[in-house]
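Researcher: Please generate the 3D structure of the following complex. Treat every line as part of one assembly.
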Amino acid sequence: MRDSKNVEPVGAPDTQPKASPYMRLPDRQFWSKAVQPADFKSVENIYTKKFSIEGLDTATAGSCFAQHVAKNLKLNGYTVLDLEPGLPSVAGMVAKRFGYDTYSARYGNIYTTRRLRQLAEEAAGLMKPDADDLVWSRANRYWDALRPSVEPKGLASPQEVLLQRADHVSRVRRLLERAKLFVFTFGLTEAWMSRRSGLVYAQAPGTPIEGRLVGSYDESAHAFVNFRVQDVYDDFVAFRKIAHSFNPEMKFLVTVSPVPLAVSAVDTHVLAATVRSKAVLRAAAAQLYEDFADVDYFPSFELLSTPFLGAARFEEDKREVQPRAVAMVMRHFFSEHPPLDGKRLRTASQEDVVCEEALLKAFSK
Amino acid sequence: MSLNICILGNSHMAAFKLAWEAIKQDYPDVRITFFGGIKGVVSRLHVEDGAIVPDNDRVRESLLWTSGGLDRITGDYDAFLLIGMGLSYERLVHMFKNHRLPDMIETLKHSVQPISESYLRAATEYFYSASGAVQNVEHVHAITSAPVFYIPCPLVSERALDDASYAYWRFVKGRDYMMNVYNSMLDRLREHCTVAPQPEETVVDGIFTKGKYCVGAVRLEKGLDRAHDVRDYVHMNAEFGEISLRDALAIIRKALPDR
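Model: Done. Output below.
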């Protein structure tokens, strides 16, 4: 159900007569005052929170940019849930390499809202992926097709994949029961799915992980899909509905990843494909923000991926966001959600973000 | 002949430091200088200009008080004895507190999370290679050709079995698995130093330290007079320190008969 409480039509009647609806608007709504004289550091009031997130047990998921949000929330005293933790005494890249210590459960990056929706449906018992769709194999090793990167060397048997999957899904269910805030970063619109079941994979079959091809692409079994605004919107609305069935109080904070596509499966230039993808995601995020009082939007995409605030904020590959830029974006975020531990804002180091989508660049060689 | 020994260790060194004060009159020809600290101090050392030096002021401060005024470890000792510093059988078994390999799981339940053999191997490899023990054995070899001896962290006290928070110690398959891992780690370390086994008289059932030795253990802090929590089953007391140190000194003497 849509909630139109926060929708204020342009030109809504005011109690005071005025000559123009643009009179008395705040500075931040005027390009000449808010953007023209500003740069990345000095731009102000680009984000105004819709609701407080203080004290909310938080779940995080999404594309690799979401890892920045998760790390920085943790560092500044917010309670970020982790219901699928790694081994004690082993943190850092060893844990991250196996999908631990990254998000609130070990789902790896969730690039599309369809994958998010299907995960929630699975957790709610509304669907159960067929083992033929779920298990990818190669050279007697086996992967969970919905999160292959979390076991880079694969597992010893299909049974082990199913055992880990059952455990994972039960933890996602508990996560949805416990989380009061779900932070999600929209990453991609392009995805690969099972023709038979519509199950959307985390990555294309046949993508290498740590130099080893995982799964095999079969044109008769796998289909490409490029989601549209309505798809993205509907999938998130469906996810929200399932999440509220577990926890009616849950709120959502969405962002759009500024990271461009590593490669597009669409027969077009990757830059055009990237802009199409990000525009779709941004539009869907706007609709969700406007339609639901419990959905907030943080404009990290605007800060990092538009040219208006100065030089580009990406590394030489023009994909990876510069650590200083991430830190600056997070400062904007925490200007509205101050650190909870009473200490000064701290920003996490950025070197250990895991981005499976970047694995696709291997095919450009 | 005199024997000049450098001891480097973490929190477990407290028992040895206390013990040395009690027994040093029995070793008039032995001089021991202690270096160490808690909370990762031993992992915050590096080699510079032929000495092992602290990374920061906190670590420097810790070296200063444990040694009685030195903030760098030079190579001019006759022998180096390293104590504890991460290689702990207890911490390996602790990995099975909430996690299990697939063949260790009969029924899925939230309290037990399946993990892959690949992940466990990567984790234990990291556990070994990132330990202060391994790092500091390398550091010592980088500054001197003097022999290096190592005393692993004590086995957990048998009293842990009576504490519900150590229930994972009743998981025998896990204990056995990790004993193999632990032994292979010590075998690897033996390629670089002499590993002194925990004295038999302190061990019970092959995998625990006798209960009496964890009573009255103190923290590695100035004064050496603040006791560990009564539910601390991994740090041992001065009596344990004495037995272990006498044992280690005998091993060092045997290796350096001319000293």
